[in-house]
Each structure stands twice: as C-alpha cells, then as structure tokens.
Amino acid sequence: MRWDEAEAVLFDLDGVLTPTAAVHMRAWELMFRGYFSTHGIEPPYTDEDYFAHVDGRPRYDGVRATLASRGVRLPEGLPGDPPGTPTVCGLGNTKNAMVNEVLEREGVEPYPGSVRVVDDLERRGVAMAVVSSSRNTPAVLGAAGLAGRFGVVVDGTVAAAEHLPGKPAPDTFLRAASRLGVPPARAVVVEDAVSGVAAGRAGGFGLVVGVDRGAGADVLIDSGADVVVQDLAELLA
Length: 237
Description:
Order of helices and strands: EHHHHHEHEHHEHEHE
Number of helices: 10
CATH topology of the largest domain: Rossmann fold
CATH class of the largest domain: Alpha Beta
Strand order of the largest sheet: 3-2-1-4-5-6
Protein name: Beta-phosphoglucomutase
Strand content: 5-15%
Number of strands: 6
Radius of gyration: 17 Å
GO molecular function: beta-phosphoglucomutase activity; metal ion binding
Distance between the termini: 16 Å
Keywords: Carbohydrate metabolism, Isomerase, Magnesium, Metal-binding, Phosphoprotein
Structural class: alpha/beta
CATH superfamily of the largest domain: HAD superfamily/HAD-like
Number of domains: 2
Enzyme class: isomerase
Largest sheet: 6 strands, parallel
C-alpha cells in the first residue's frame, strides 16, 4: 500500500512525534548505570542495551529484558512500588520518575517534520492514532501541544487495563485500528523502534514506516519496515 492510500495512520510517540526518546534513553541510562554499579553487575549498561532490550517495550518489560541480558532476576514487585525498590516494578518506577522530572523542567518540542505530516493527514481527513507503550503519553502530548490531535490513544495505561501484550506483539496497534474502524491492511504503522516495527509487520498492516533515530535503517528493514525515513516530512514528497 502507498502512503497516500492509507485510511489511518498509527504513530508511535517517542522518537516519532516527539524527541522524548532522548529523554527516556537518558533516564534508562541513569537508572541502570546506577543500579549496575551499586550491585557490581557487568558489563556496564550502554546505548546498545537501550536499542536491544528497552526501546519500544513496556517499561517493566524493558527492565526485565535488560536484567535478563546480565543473568539477573529480581522479584516482580507491584506497580505501586516506590522508586528505588529492588524489584522490576521499583526500577521501572525509578526511571519513570526521572522522565517526569525532565518533562516538567524542560518540556518537549515535537519534531517539525512530524507536525507537518499530522497537519497534512488532518487536512485530508485521514484517521490518526497514537500507540505507545509509555504511561506518560498524555503528559507528553500535552507538553508538546499535540493533545486532541488524535482520535485514539492506546498507551501503557490502556494496554494494562485491557490486558494487551506490548510490542513486539501487534495487539496495541490492532486495538487502535479497531477503535478507528479501519482494517489493518488499510492502515500505516509509523515506528522508530525495532520492537514496534516488528509489531506492525506481525499485525498485517498495509505499510510499516520505520523512522531511523539511531536503530539503523538496515536493522529496521530487517525487522519488517517497508520503507525507512530519517524525518517524517520525507513522506510528503
């Protein structure tokens, strides 16, 4: 399916609409480097860990996958565990607290090219949704001035409430398409994460667009992207 044939476009948030991926990436780095250093876990956390184990996944899944890569297992804990609690949930909540601090202090500007694409789709009457594993999605959309631009938002809170598995499973994207009333074959998934691209391919979507914000074009293609761009404005050409 061509871009201009789409009846709906489903956007990931971090790294696609807003550069909050950099904020999340920094928060993960601070949290894991501190935890690894304190507990003598080797090798140290790197950016490669972010792209391999964290990017695009639900927060606790990212914690679990990164720890597993070092042969470490922690008690699952509870979603209400305070930051600093030595559980999967506690580490995830530590990272989340760091993200919120940065958002409140600095705000976030959406990518100009992404706003141009959203404006164009809105003019053409194409249905749009945001599909993100982040529970911070409403706060980020508000901080970026994008609240109210999307007919459907399926985020980490919705996924938890509806028991939807996170990316790379396609369920959150499929749920968003269903809410918009558009079959997957007539919808586009736009993702910067390997897990998100894989989810779009697994869901049978008509077009999967990868946005290369650091994962690498070849990696995104190998994961299921039909086309890779560095800026969404390239889709308007």
